[in-house]
Structures are given as C-alpha cells and as structure tokens.
Specification:
Elements lengths: L7 H15 L3 H20 L5 H27 L3 H27 L12 H15 L9 H9 L12 H9 L5 H26 L6 H7 L5 H29 L1
Helix pairs in contact: 2-3, 2-6, 3-4, 3-5, 3-6, 4-5, 8-10
C-alpha cells in the first residue's frame, strides 16, 4: 500500500502546496497532477524493479491511456456496440497478458519474464468505465490532460476506489480553496487510520491465526473455532480495505 511508503506524506504535502499556492489555473493544476503522479509511480516501483523497468511500465500506462482516450473520443461520436467491444479489448488484452498469459506460460515451461505493472487491474477497470460512459455520449469536451490525471492519480492508483471520470472532472474544475473540503478530507483520513491501524492491525490482527497453522491444524479444530478464525480474518480484511478506502477518499 502506497500510504506506508516513507515518501508518501512528504510527497503529498509538497503536492498540496504547489497545487493550491503556486498554480492558479485548472490547466496547470491538471498537468501537475498528471506529471507528479507519474513521477510518484516510478519512485514507488523502484523498490521492487529497476528504474528502467519502472519508467517503461509507467510510460506504457501513459501510452495505453492515450489510446483509450482517443478510442473514447470516437465512441462519443459513434457509440455503437461493435466499436465499444473493440475499444474494451485493448486494455483487457494488456491485463490478460500480465495477469494470466505470462503466469500460464511460465508454468508450461516458457517463461516470459514479465512483471505486472503496478495497478494494472485498477486502471484497466477505469479504462472500461470511461469507455462505457463515452459510448453513452459523455465527455465529448474532456481534455487529454484531465484523463491522464484521472488514470495516474497517485493516491488511488494501486487499489482504488474506482472513481468515475465525471466525478473526477467535477472536482478538477473546482479551483477554489475551501477549509470545509480540507476538514472533510482530514475527517475521512482519520476514520481510515482508525479502521486500518487501530481496529484491523491492533485489535483484530492478534486473533487471526496464520494461514499455515490453519492448513495444518484444521482437522483438529471444531466448528466454533473455525468460525471464529474465519470471522477474525474477514474482519481484518474488511477494515483493511475500508480504512484504505477512507484514506484515499480523504486525500483525493
């Protein structure tokens, strides 16, 4: 999760300062979001891959975003189902290559040595959401910078939540600084921190048995013990994702 990286908070604070204090037009703010998000995604990936691969993966996301954007423009003018199906195949093909074809090929003895780019599932679903809405005649006037900012927006990139492009545009077009918005965001972040670090990690995690113990001892457990272990694991997963979602919404 990107929130746990040491660079996230300083990066976020610098971005907020530049966004609200140094940039005063919607155009430059949009470009800044897209550019800074691309830089952050590269930095976040170099912990697990080389710098060259991180740049290549992020560049690939940008190129695919441009392709999907222009396919969406065509769909706003001619929203037939055949064109929509062809457009959706493009991002799904990339997802299938990294998530399914590459692992299957490796298991069959033909390794492709492909590492799935960060957030590939997440931005694939954003692409599909955008294309479907374009087929209904929406976003005829949307600019490419706004779409890149929408896809690359770093607080949401790894796991969402998946926000619709229309909602993102509305927030992007709101250029006025508001303490009400800031306080609402901080409130959501506080709720997320409580869910993730207090409830999930501190209160629930001690009651979640390790997976290897469950696998080896499951035959010795009665129904009540299995139920409690399953409930603890469910609660931890729920509050993990709920906390992350609240923090992302608060930051966004």
């Amino acid at each position: 999760m990107l929130y746990q990286t040491p660079v996230f908070l300083p990066f976020l604070l610098v971005n907020l300062f530049i966004y609200w204090r140094l940039l005063h037009t919607r155009v430059w703010r949009t470009r800044w979001i897209a550019a800074s998000s691309a830089v952050f995604l590269i930095a976040a990936q170099i912990e697990t891959v080389t710098l060259e691969y991180a740049c290549l993966a992020t560049g690939g996301v940008i190129l695919l975003s441009l392709l999907v954007y222009f396919l969406g423009r065509q769909l706003t003018r001619n929203g037939n189902l055949a064109l929509l199906a062809i457009a959706i195949v493009a991002p799904l093909s990339v997802l299938g290559l990294f998530k399914y074809f590459a692992p299957i090929s490796s298991n069959l003895g033909y390794p492709l040595n492909l590492i799935a780019p960060m957030g590939v599932s997440y931005y694939t679903f954003k692409f599909i959401s955008y294309l479907i809405e374009c087929s209904r005649g929406k976003f005829a006037d949307a600019d490419v910078e706004a779409f890149l900012a929408y896809i690359l927006f770093f607080p949401m990139f790894t796991a969402g939540p998946i926000e619709r492009f229309g909602n993102f545009l509305e927030q992007l077009n709101e250029c006025r600084f508001s303490w009400d918005v800031i306080s609402t965001g901080l409130e959501r972040i506080a709720i997320g921190v409580a869910f993730k670090f207090v409830i999930s990690d501190f209160l629930v995690a001690p009651f979640v048995p390790p997976g290897e113990i469950m696998a080896s001892e499951v035959n010795r457990l009665d129904a009540w013990q299995v139920f409690l272990a399953s409930l603890a694991r469910f609660l931890r997963t729920y509050f993990d994702f709920a906390g992350y979602t609240h923090m992302v919404i608060g930051v966004g």
